[in-house]
Design a protein that fits this description.
Length: 191
């Protein structure tokens, strides 16, 4: 069965964005882009909340066509155009969207149905509100976290309104990047 893996940049104190949604503190460089690009290039399904999806949709479909496009822009734009996108939204309509499925109700049933299909793991990118909903329904199978060397003190927390303990198992695929970001991979321990 496919797994839902949450991919997120975090501050050391567990925030995914500043109090007003700021993400200018996130460190990304070519080393991280290359590393992440290799891993997600195997993925065939991306999961987003509405806000993150709209942000991605505003940039990635044409990112490779810009005169200033970087290697990362070209590679990720190509991947984005090919990957199946699943969007969690109660307000979006699935009219005219290419290679995109909108889930507006019966979240657990519909995501479990997608998990049963053939394919690679489903990567949940950013989307803190969607992530909170999935955590509360015990639908996330793993966490792929990039801990940034900063303490924000306040902002949008990654883990919010957790009702029960979630046991995790650290996977051996962790890495520290030159820019100071540390990657941590955890599997949810369901035993």
């Amino acid at each position: 069965m496919r797994k839902i893996i949450s991919f997120m940049h975090l501050s050391l104190d567990g925030f995914v964005a500043g109090p007003n949604g700021e993400m200018n503190w996130i460190k990304v460089d070519e080393e991280i882009f290359d590393y992440v690009g290799k891993r997600i290039s195997k993925g065939d399904t991306a999961l987003y909340g509405r806000v993150t999806y709209q942000m991605m949709e505003d940039y990635w479909p044409t990112a490779a066509d810009k005169p200033t496009a970087t290697k990362h822009d070209i590679e990720h734009s190509k991947w984005y155009s090919q990957v199946h996108k699943v969007v969690l939204s109660k307000t979006m309509e699935n009219t005219g969207l290419t290679n995109t499925t909108i889930i507006s109700d019966k979240l657990a049933d519909k995501l479990n149905e997608i998990k049963q299909r053939e394919g690679e793991d489903i990567l949940l990118f950013g989307s803190p509100t969607a992530t909170h909903s999935l955590i509360q329904q015990n639908l996330i199978d793993g966490y792929w976290l990039f801990i940034n060397p900063i303490i924000l003190g306040q902002g949008i927390p990654f883990f919010a309104n957790i009702k029960e303990k979630i046991k995790l198992r650290l996977l051996p695929t962790n890495r520290q990047f030159v820019c100071g970001v540390t990657e941590l991979n955890y599997a949810v321990d369901r035993q």
